[in-house]
Write a structure and sequence with these properties.
With 321 residues, the protein is an alpha/beta fold. It contains 14 helices and eleven strands. Helix 10 crosses helix 11 and helix 12 runs antiparallel to helix 14. The chain is globular, with a radius of gyration of 20 Å.
Length: 321
């Protein structure tokens, strides 16, 4: 896994030329990229959500499209539509902005649920069906959606089916004082994004995505993942717990994080480091618990503190086999 680690560090270093002081968040974004998963970034405006998506696409040389979600946006504005060509007397498909390798769905919760649902098939099945014809998404395909906090006016809550399709939910947060000074200094004359160049070709990225699937996961670690997810479903303050898709995503994300650390096996600490980002946005808290200001993040942390890791078998004490 040394080659995966070295390549990922090149991409991380490139992205961190633009996103200052957010090493953990950049690593999480790379985890989703290696797993071919999608990212939901929930934060206030102006903290670098859009720049993160642009920096990733430029660093890996992918096509990039941005969709600005607004209340009047239609599903066909996202996926594309068929237009009648009078010269050929036939319908021609005009692809929408979703047909790109890295897609930024900016302020996704400002669109109506009807428009948000246009992303469901694209994100899960890597295709869009228009007029009965399925059009495949390009490879790799990564959706990075940004969302303003729900208390802001003019927003719609994302449906559960939409949230469940995001592998990770991240929050960038405000930079520290010294980091913000560095940001000001870096942008005195031009934005660092203009100087980013490709540091990883697509063939190498696909090899990395294939390599992490071979990272070994001990049975005890897999059982630990299932116990964590089951505990979210049985928690007294939870109306709807994490789905089996959440278990799969936590499993895959653990493999990717292990590879980023240069290991070819997953340890329980990988699962713990990813649990909040992978599981919290999938939980629906009961209304009476919400009144007590209970939030999904705290529930996942509580579950992590309560669920035992379990004893690994002797074959896993030094890694795989």
């Amino acid at each position: 896994m040394k080659s995966v680690q070295d390549s990922a560090e090149r991409v991380a270093a490139s992205v961190e030329r633009v996103i200052i002081g957010k090493h953990l968040e950049v690593r999480m974004a790379l985890v989703a990229l290696l797993c071919e998963g999608h990212i939901l970034i929930e934060d206030v405006p102006g903290v670098g959500k859009t720049m993160l998506a642009k920096a990733i696409s430029r660093s890996i040389g992918c096509s990039f499209r941005r969709i600005q979600f607004t209340p009047d946006l239609l599903p066909s504005d996202v996926t594309g539509l068929s237009i009648f060509n009078q010269k050929t007397a036939d319908f021609e498909f005009r692809p929408g902005p979703i047909m790109a390798q890295v897609v930024l769905a900016d302020e996704i919760n400002r669109a109506t649920p009807k428009t948000q649902s246009a992303l469901l098939e694209c994100m899960e099945e890597r295709q869009a069906t228009i007029d009965g014809v399925s059009h495949p998404m390009p490879s790799p395909f990564l959706v990075i959606a940004t969302q303003n906090p729900i208390e802001y006016e003019g927003t719609f809550a994302l449906p559960e089916a939409q949230l469940d399709r995001f592998m990770l939910r991240l929050r960038l947060g405000y930079p520290k004082a010294m980091e913000e000074i560095v940001i000001l200094d870096e942008q005195k004359r031009r934005h660092p994004i203009d100087e980013l160049t490709q540091v990883l070709d697509l063939d190498e990225l696909r090899q990395m995505q294939a390599a992490i699937k071979d990272v070994y996961v001990e049975q005890a670690v897999a059982e630990y993942i299932v116990r964590l997810v089951t505990a979210t479903r049985e928690h007294p303050d939870v109306y709807l717990g994490a789905s089996p898709r959440g278990s799969i995503n936590l499993y895959r994300a653990g493999q990717a994080l292990a590879a980023l650390d240069g290991r070819d096996y997953v340890i329980p600490d990988d699962v713990k480091a990813l649990a909040v980002a992978v599981l919290a946005h999938r939980l629906i808290v009961k209304s009476q618990a919400s009144l007590r200001e209970v939030n999904p993040d705290s529930i996942v942390r509580e579950v992590l503190a309560q669920v035992p890791i379990g004893e690994p078998s002797s074959s896993a004490t030094v890694g795989p086999r």
